[in-house]
Amino acid sequence: MASSLAETLATSADRHCFSDENLRTQLETAETRLGYNIVHFYVDEHGVISKIATSTLETFYLSPSGGTLRDKNMNIVQYSARYDMYKGIGKL
Domain count of the chain? Predict the structure, then answer.
């Protein structure tokens, strides 16, 4: 039980474990290239973004216009209107 709690605390403190909060944290200092914010998250053995620490860290690209998170091959990993920085702009 204690190791499970310690593991949970370690995971929540690692900004490379995928979560909305960790994405927002990385965006505060993320490099922007060609309109994408560059962030880094752990992936599992299949290359899928991970909520827990693994041995592999990959680069992901967030389009702030549209809220789309893409992997290194530009495949859509996740879409969320919460990530759209311009949501609501232009609506009357």
Answer: 1
Say what the pTM is: 0.78
Q: How far apart are CA 81 and CA 29, in angstroms?
A: 21
Which of 1, 69, 62 is closest to 32 using CA atoms?
Answer: 62
Q: What is the residue whose two structure tokens read 């809220």?
A: 67
- At 19-73, the pLDDT tens digits run 999 999 999 999 999 999 999 999 999 999 999 999 999 999 999 888 899 999 9
Whole-number Å distance between alpha carbons of 16 and 30: 13
Rg value, the chain, Cα? 15
**Using CA atoms, how far apart are residues 75 and 20, in angstroms rounded to an integer?**
19
- Which amino acid, residue 69? L
User: Could you tell me if residue 20 is inside a domain?
Assistant: yes
Query: What domain range includes position 48?
Result: 2-83
Q: Where are the alpha helices (DSSP H) in the chain?
A: 2-13, 20-27
